[in-house]
Amino acid sequence: MVERQLRRRGIEDERVLTAMAEVPRELFLPEELWGRAYADSALPIGEEQTISQPWIVAAICQALELEGSELVLEVGTGSGYSAAVLARLAAHVVSVERHEALSRAAAEALTALEIRNVEQVVGDGSLGVPPRAPFDAIAVHATAPAAPPALVDQLADDGRLVVPIAAGDTDVLTVLHRLGDRVETREIGPCRFVPLIGEEGFGEE
Question: N or C, which end of the chain is more exposed by having fewer CB within 10 Å?
Answer without folding.
Answer: C
